[in-house]
Amino acid sequence: MATKRVLSGMRPTGRLHLGNLHGALNNWIELQGRDDCERFYFVADWHALTSDYAETGHLREWSRQMVIDWLGAGLDPDKSTIFVQSAIKEHAELFVLLSMITPIAWLERNPSYKEMKEEITNKDLSTFGFLGYPVLQSADIIIYKANYVPVGVDQLPHIELTREIARRFNHLYGDTFPIPEHILTAFPKLLGIDGRKMSKSYGNSIYIGDSGEALRQKIEEMFTDPQRVRRNDPGRPELCNVYAFHKLYSTEAFVLELKNSCENALIGCRECKKRLSDAVCIALAPIHERIDHYNNNSSVVEEIIAVGNAQAKAIAQETMEQVRAAVRI
Predict the structure, then answer these.
(1) Counting beta carbons within 10 angstroms of the beta carbon of residue 319, is it exposed (0 to 12), middle (13 to 18) or buried (19 or more)?
(2) Could you tell me the pTM of the whole model?
(3) All domains in the chain, ordered by first residue
(4) N or C: which end of the chain has fewer CB within 10 A?
(5) CA distance 246 to 259
């Protein structure tokens, strides 16, 4: 019988990329093999508004497509509750209460806040919603009394903030929430084709739906060892993003062979990228088949979301009854 809860979510700001797949989604799928916990995964559509509040035309479709990408990657609705954040209004109520007890200094020192303010210059991020989204994220987690949160390494500061907010609530109003812990994937961070963190905001992503020439073109553009200028220059595979991808998609034997070939200039970057394209195409093929299946069966997807919303809402309502009693409101 399940005794613990796992919860995580993603913002629907476009198609999922390989960083999402390896940094979080594969971890979600692996956790489906555990019998000791319940699993809750949500489409964080309110969080999408923190940076894309002026462009909401695609939000509903992207939310639906995100669920399809999850199902295509292998998330099983019979083993995991899949739901949409905005369908559970209790998240917003808990967010309001938590915002009353969260010091502004805790939010201003958030490294993601500083990084995105510096990197994303084409949008006005000087909003309360952007500053305060970690509080909403905390509400998302603790409203289900989650014990574990599978995330990428860049989300660790947010989980620590959630822990601090839960502790503060418990101190002020009595023990209500467990203190959640993070679960990191074996490959917690994947770089984009330009060498920065893979992100839709940076326009450097390889998407799990990419295939054919589009996929090959992106891999062809990937940064390699900057000091390997000519074909006969020895390479440093440990500094090459293409080599990092090979460790995910190629066989162990080939990776060992590639390391030696690169270091001794026995293989060029063009050939190395071609071999990577072939490997990624093979790995993504079954995902593409499942995505096509769900795209052609929209009623099945809608039913999965409806069932998940109902299951999540029942738990959120129960938690909020306890929260209101604790706060005496």
Answers:
(1) middle
(2) 0.90
(3) 4-191+298-327 (3.40.50.620), 209-292 (1.10.240.10)
(4) N
(5) 10
